[in-house]
Amino acid sequence: MGMIAPRPMSIVVEGLPTTSAKIRALAAEGYLRADIARFLGIAYQHVRKVLEDAGSREGLQRDVAPSTAPKSAPAAEPLTVDVLVAAGFTLLGTWTAGDDGIELEVPAPKRPGVYAFAINGTVQYVGVTQGTFHQRMYQYRRGDPGQTTNARINPVIAAELAAGRIVEIYLAMPDPAIWNGLPVNMAAGLEEGLIKRYSLPWNVRGARG
Q: Within this chain, do residues 114 and 53 fall inside the same structural domain, yes or no?
């Protein structure tokens, strides 16, 4: 049997002459002391004193009906290239396998922004650069062991190329915005939003691109 929901606070206190009476009635109805204090616009200590003087321990914790089964968060959906392109991303080109490791098919622009690596129409990785795409892609090409993300992603791309798959690169260069006279980094916000919303196999939560 489910728990009976408490009546609205305004109904519970209707017609009660004093604040103390309202506190006792709300606590008896099942409301938390903090909620009572906020509703009545009084200090939490006032609510506690009234209930303790009445010998009541109500309002300390709301009863919670036991869950019949654990609830799991819904799995994030994959991010497709179609979604990126519809939002304004453009295709730069692909990664290729060269004599010295992975290489870019075409030079990357010398501008900052958000980039994405995709295979078979599905985005695998999203990152942001505050420098330029040219510098950032060069860092991926080197796979410097001293730079964690570069060292991790470089061999992943190389393995995909060795398996005969095409790794595409998509770019977005959103302009900075202003919020109430303050600057907003749209690129950083775009990257964070994509990582939070979509399933991106190569991204590590909490790591920056």
A: no
Looking at per-residue pLDDT, the higher value among 53 and 196 belongs to 196
pLDDT in the model for residue 56 = 75
Q: Is 130's pLDDT higher than 70?
A: yes
Residue 208 lies in a domain: no
- pLDDT for 73: 56
Instruction: Please give the Cα distance from 174 to 88 (Å, whole number).
Output: 9
Same domain for 39 and 81: no
DSSP 147-194: SHHHHHHHHHHHHHHHTT--EEEEEE-PPPEEETTEEE-HHHHHHHHH
Task: With CA atoms as reference, report the closest residue to 141 among 154, 129, 128.
Answer: 154
82 DSSP 8-state letter: H
Judgement on whether residues 105 and 164 belong to the same structural domain of the protein: yes
Answer whether 92's CB lies under 8 Å from 172's CB.
Answer: no
* Domain count along the chain: 2
Nearest to 21 by CA among 55, 41, 47: 47
**Strand 113-119 with 90-98, pairing:** unpaired
In the chain the beta strands, taken as DSSP E runs, fall at 77-78, 90-98, 101-104, 113-119, 122-129, 167-172, 177-179, 182-184, 198-199
DSSP code of 141? H
Query: What residue numbers bound the domain in which 81 lies?
Result: 77-199
Q: Which tens digit of pLDDT belongs to each residue from 145-182?
A: 888 899 999 999 999 999 999 999 999 999 989 999 99
* C-beta of residue 33 within 8 angstroms of C-beta of residue 27: yes
